Amino acid sequence: MIYLDNAATSFPKPPALAETMKDFLDTEAVNPGRSGFDLSLRAGLRIDELRQNLASYFNHPDNDPNRVVFTANATDALNLAIQGVCHAGDHVVSTVLEHNSVLRPLFELQKMGITHDLAPCDERGFVHPASIEKLLRPETRLVIMTHASNVLGTIQPVQRIGEICRAKGILFLIDTAQTAGVIPVDMKATHADLLAFTGHKGLMGPTGTGGLLVGNKVEVRPIRWGGTGVRSAVRGHLEEYPYRLEAGTLNTVGLAGLGAGLEWARNHDAFNTETQLTNRLLEGLDDLPSIGILGLEKGEKDINLAGRLSVISLLIDGMDPAKAGMFLDADWDIAVRTGLLCAPLVHEAMGTLQGGTIRISPGPFNTPQHIDQLLEALATF
């Protein structure tokens, strides 16, 4: 199979991932730090080291590993952040580019008296800072923005928007699901108060891993309570981080794998590999007049100049995206993503709400031959 759905989940994983997880299962897979015996302490030290590595990787403003909170994925982290800082009467600003992991919580929170507005994107898929600033109100509590669109790959001007939020005293939350592990993500430089990430995409980790980085000037209310393994006689949930936002036993096996994935991502230039493959794809698509690319004009052949990640959404004249995806799978053994990609408002803005698109997202283990095979297949439609 030629796998071109890395924007959903990176695959295959680096060999070190499975090796590390197996070794952890064989030697350390006990409750981390919740007992006094050496093995538990050693497992706890591994998790503590990962917190520190992630605080460093994302340049947490205070380099505070205790404010790296582990979650099941980016959706879990975003829910934790949104529900944990907003109160009835608050206003939130976000964008039409967001994934349902943001849109659906905002929709549900309307029932609690929390309102929101969504900034538009332009025809190429970028949100302009002025569009965000225009929507801010005195009661605006939070601005949420994806770092890069999962449909279009467009990298958003998060630094400028963070500057606007910081100047107005508004919290800024960045969703890095598409960018973490692919391009630099700097919490301090972007003035981010909160940063959500997932482990199973660019960080090359297993599914079921992710987290929320919380700035030291932000307090997030717990939205779940339970065991922490620390000061168990206290009746209420603990106030200090990371226990404040974590309850129950962590996915330690998955986090061991995430540590291996993070190490791999730090030592490999996945962005360069993926960019070269995507540029090869763009050059080939230029010879296929029946295929259009969302947000790009024919003849654009450099994804870097377009300000995008290696995420391409295609339309084929006269063919339903779902049908095209089925043919690619059945006849060519090529895996792509089709449909609305969990981000319906992007498609509404781009005029593709009926049927969605075909998304191509190369990963670091794809090859030029994979792209050539895809182009050969697309030429038959």
Notable traits:
seven-stranded mixed beta sheet, Aspartate Aminotransferase, domain 1, four-stranded antiparallel beta sheet, 381 residues, alpha/beta, Aspartate Aminotransferase, domain 2, 11 helices, single chain
Major β-sheet profile: 7 strands, mixed
How much of the sequence lies in strands comes to: 5-15%
pLDDT < 50 runs, ≥5 residues: none
Sheet/helix structural class: alpha/beta
Which second-level CATH architecture of the largest domain applies?
Answer: 3-Layer(aba) Sandwich
In spatial order, strands of the major sheet run: 2-8-7-6-5-3-4
Count of β-strands: 13
How many angstroms does the end-to-end distance come to?
Answer: 20 Å
Question: How is this structure best described in words?
Answer:
The protein is 35% helix and 14% strand. The protein is an alpha/beta fold and 381 residues long. The protein has 2 domains: 2-9 and 269-378, Aspartate Aminotransferase, domain 1, CATH 3.90.1150; 15-266, 3-Layer(aba) Sandwich (Aspartate Aminotransferase, domain 2). Strands 2-8-7-6-5-3-4 form a 7-stranded mixed β-sheet, sandwiched between helices. A 4-stranded antiparallel β-sheet has the order 9-10-13-12, with helices on one face. β3 (91-95), α4 (100-109) and β4 (115-119) form a beta-alpha-beta unit. It is globular and about 70 Å long.
